[in-house]
Each structure stands twice: as C-alpha cells, then as structure tokens.
Specification:
By secondary structure, this protein is of the alpha/beta class. It has helices at 15-21, 40-45, 51-62, 68-79, 113-117, 120-130, 146-155, 174-181, 197-209, 211-219, 232-251, 271-282, 298-305, 330-337, 342-355, 362-370, 381-395, 401-417, 435-443, 449-458, 465-470, 486-495; strands at residues 2-5, 11-13, 30-32, 92-96, 99-103, 136-142, 161-168, 188-193, 222-226, 261-266, 286-293, 307-309, 357-359, 374-378, 423-427, 480-481. The chain contains 22 helices and 16 strands. The chain binds pyridoxal-5'-phosphate.
Length: 496
C-alpha cells in the first residue's frame, strides 16, 4: 500500500518507510492511499480472537509489506507478554444505562498510549530489518507526562534503538516523574529540563532541525526519530480497539450486529479519536464521535464554529495529557474533509503557522458534524470533578480526570440530543496515575499523592502493581539541564 502526505508532495511505498521516517519530507503526515474495507461478518468474528489476533487482522489490511508471520511476531511481543494486567487487554464493561467503558489503561504505564507504544518498537525494528537499515535509531521525546513513560517502557532494551526523554522539571505530576526517573534499561536517558513543557518541546524541535547535530550523529551511525502520535506506527495500532470494542458490544448483547454506536473520546492531539474515524471509514458502524475536551477547548470551538484558533490562553488542568492547543492529527481529518485536496490542507497549516488560526466553510463544518459524525463539547474543571464524584456515587467506579472529561461531555450530549444509542466511553488512564485530584473530587479531601493512593484503596480501588512499587524503586535518572544543554546531552548519549 502507498502512503500519501497530507501536504501533497511526498509518496512512500509501504508502511515500513512511514514508520522509519515518522513525518513526510514536505512537513505533512502520512495517510493510507485508501481505507481498506472490513465486512460486518469479519467484525463480528473478531469476538472469538485474542486482542493480539484482532490487532494482526486490522494491521494486515494496512501493512501489506509485512508478512503474516512478521505481523504475528510483532503483535504477540506487544500484547501477549506479561506487561498488561488484564487478560482481555482492552476490556469493555457496562458503565451506566446505555453507556459502556472501554478500558485502555491495563498496560505497563497505566495510560492508553501503551496500546500503541508497546507495539511501535516491534514495528520499527521489523521495518528497519526489512529495509536493511543498520543505523542506531535515537528516539527523541519531549513529554508533558504520559508519552515519555510509555515510550521509555516500549523502547527500553530494544536492539538498535536508543531513547532520550526530556520532561519539564516543574511540569509533570509526582507519579509521572517517578515513573520516568525510575526507568531501567541500558538504552534509555531521562532528563529534567529547567522550565515548562514548551521549553522541553522547543529544545527537542531545535535538535531535530540542527544540521550540525545531525552530522555529528551521522558520524556515529545514529539517526534521530520521533515516537509522537503523528507517526503512522502510533495511529494504526489504535484502530484495533474500536473494532475490538464493537465486537465485544455485540458479544455482550449491547447492540445487534450492524447497529450504529457512539464513541466518546477524551481528546488532545486528536490521535485516539482519529483512529476511530479511520475504523468507521473501514466499515465500523458508528453514529457519532463525541470529541471531549477540557477547558483547552480549541477542538470544541472548531467543531461548533468552523474556526480553529490556537491564539488563546493555555490552561493547566487536572487532565494534563489533554492540555494541548495545537492538535496535530486534526490535519489528517482535514485531508479527508477537503476530499484529499492537499493544497487546501497546506493553506490551513500555513495560516495556523503564520496567524495562529484557520477556518473552514460552513458547508464543510456541516459535513464534519453531519456526514463524518463529529460532535464537540468540553468540561470545566468543576464539571470534571463532579463527573468523578458522580461515577463513584452511582456505580462505585473510580475514574481518572481524562476519562471524566469524556463522561461529562457524554452527559451533555445526552441532554442536548435526548438520544439512547449505545455509547462506548473511551477510558484512557488509571485513576491511580492522578490520585490526589481523584480523591479530592470524590471526598473533598486534599492529600499527598501516596496518601491519596491508600485512601482510594479504602474506597474500593484496586491499586496497580506498578504504582505500589513506585515509592520503593530506586531513582536512576537525576540529571537536570538547561534547554541550551540539550544538544550536548543527546550527543553524549549517542556516543555512549
Ligand atoms: C494522550 C492522552 C489523551 C489524549 O489523546 P490524543 O490521542 O492526544 O487525543 C487522553 N487521555 C490520556 C490519559 C492521555 O495520555
């Protein structure tokens, strides 16, 4: 299968090349030349397969440059190993009334990014082998929390790969920080950058753009790469759990095969929800994608007014993984909305870069909501907190703030539409990753993170093993640096 760039000036033959290059050479994102179709019969038959088999089935439609045995090895290494704490991997269970929860946080770092980042390293290593690439790949990550740990966990001790993660020393939660600073593995570097997430991110972007650094790395046979969610290798694994959830909805009798359902997705960079949209284009019966934002509600405004305006105040919230103003994967949706006219995508992206905003016509906005099925809403911090409390009081479920954003927006959707179509709420993190916010929402108590964990346990929560171990694991990464020192850090690490 060929992959096109959303900006029109680049074509790649085969997914392998997309995994390795990450971003297209014209600055655009890779999209498949067409959406392979999956029949209803095939969807229903997924219910008898394991999660890794479901994934191999979906991947085989896009990764036609991989042999069946290569695919099977990759998915098996990602999902059949011991690093998930739940046999189904992505379990679906009833929440309230016609709402179900798809739990995507049973992987090693307790956030949904594991669903893709447990698999991406295997896809990348296989792609390199197939294309006879013998260089060392150095994955550079700037993280505001969840991505860094999920990438460290996925890439640690993977042959031919090194990974360096930079996080803001004042910008991540205690749990997130401990997860990263206690990371083991011979090929990992974790560094705190003095400043906020922007400083870490700008520092990483500068290294990618620095031809001097690139030359020096080349002399060591090292090539830089990225593991963020614009890489096709992060997006394609996520399509699986939308099909998986639908098959499980049918198996549980929640819907009749062929009936349409809704998905409510807590959204930041638009990767998760876009994978759902791709699933619909492949044949999954979907009524609506409820795009749920926190008060950084740039996507809500886009869906409702047709104007994407990133020039606004940035808010730090209790759902930090959704504190995003530039939602990168939206570019892929624009490509479809413009009927794959890359020139129009390019115009929007140029406007965004030059003026901080872009807009689409009212007829296209209507198409976005009516034909493509998107519905946008957001929750204030008080509404997030209320959703956590209500979920506990009504169903004794302890949900995390990101999931609570989806629950809160879903309730608004119900109020507006009066609809009763079965809905899958996508639950993206374990509450134990954000214990003090969750405890405060439920009981009103303020408490330190580890105290909050104990208290949530007495409220009936099941503490994941990896959280229990965090307090006692040795801190292995203590380096703190200034933004200006980041290139040197990377070069020294590459030479090791
Ligand atoms: C990354 C993340 C999100 C947002 O997902 P996108 O694909 O960026 O929209 C939501 N919740 C959690 C817990 C996350 O880590």
């Amino acid at each position: 299968m060929q992959y096109l760039s959303t900006r029109g000036d680049c074509i790649q033959d085969g997914a392998s090349r997309c995994f390795i290059s990450g971003i297209a050479s014209d600055g655009g994102l890779f999209v498949p030349e067409s959406f392979p179709k999956v029949s209803l019969e095939e969807i229903i038959s997924l219910k008898n397969l394991t999660y890794s088999q479901r994934c191999a089935f979906i991947l085989s439609r896009y990764l036609d440059d991989f042999t069946p045995s290569e695919l099977e090895k990759c998915v098996s290494a990602a999902y059949d190993s011991g690093s998930f704490d739940c046999a189904q991997r992505a379990p679906l269970n009833k929440f309230e009334d016609s709402a179900y929860m798809l739990e995507l946080w049973h992987g090693p770092t307790l956030a949904f990014k594991d669903m893709a980042l447990q698999l991406l390293p295997h896809l990348l290593v296989t792609a390199k082998r197939k294309l006879d690439r013998t260089e060392t790949t150095l994955i550079l990550v700037a993280t505001s929390g969840d991505t860094g740990k999920a990438a460290l966990e996925g890439f640690c001790d993977v042959e031919g790969i090194k990974i360096a993660v930079f996080y803001p020393d004042q910008g991540v939660s205690l749990m997130q920080k401990l997860q990263m600073t206690t990371q083991t593995g011979g090929n990992v570097l974790t560094v705190a950058v003095r400043g906020n997430f922007d400083d870490a991110q700008t520092g990483v972007k500068r290294i990618f753009a620095d031809s001097n650094v690139k030359e020096q790395l080349k002399a060591e046979n090292v090539v830089l790469s990225s593991a963020n969610s614009i890489n096709w290798g992060r997006l394609v694994p996520q399509i699986t759990y939308y099909f998986s959830a639908y098959a499980d909805m049918c198996a549980q009798g929640a819907v009749k095969p062929g009936d349409k359902i809704n998905f409510a997705v807590p959204t930041g960079n638009f990767g998760n929800i876009l994978a759902g949209y791709y699933a619909m284009r492949m044949g999954l019966p979907v009524n609506r994608f409820i795009c749920a934002s926190n008060i950084n509600n740039v996507l809500t405004d886009f869906i409702n007014d047709g104007v994407y305006n990133a020039r606004r105040e940035f808010h730090k919230t209790t759902s930090p993984s959704m504190d995003i103003l530039i939602s990168s994967n939206l570019e892929r949706l624009l490509f479809e909305l413009f009927d794959r006219n890359a020139l129009k995508v390019k115009e929007c992206m140029d406007d965004l870069k030059n003026t901080g905003s872009y807009s689409i016509s009212e007829s296209l906005r209507k198409r976005l909501t009516e034909k493509e099925g998107f519905w946008g809403g957001y929750c204030s911090e008080a509404e997030v907190s209320a959703a956590i409390k209500a979920a506990y009081e009504k169903s004794r479920r302890i949900i995390d703030p990101h999931t609570a954003v989806a629950v809160g927006v879903y309730k608004k959707y119900l109020e507006k539409t009066g609809e009763s179509i079965p809905t899958v709420i996508v639950s993206t993190a374990s509450a134990f990753k954000f214990p003090s916010s969750v405890l405060e929402a439920i009981t009103g108590e303020k408490s330190g993170e580890f105290d909050a964990i104990k208290k949530l346990e007495t409220l009936g929560g099941i503490v994941p093993q990896s959280i229990k171990e965090l307090a006692s694991r040795p801190v292995l990464h203590k380096t703190v640096c200034d933004k200006a020192e980041m290139p040197r850090m990377v070069l020294e690490f590459a030479a090791k």
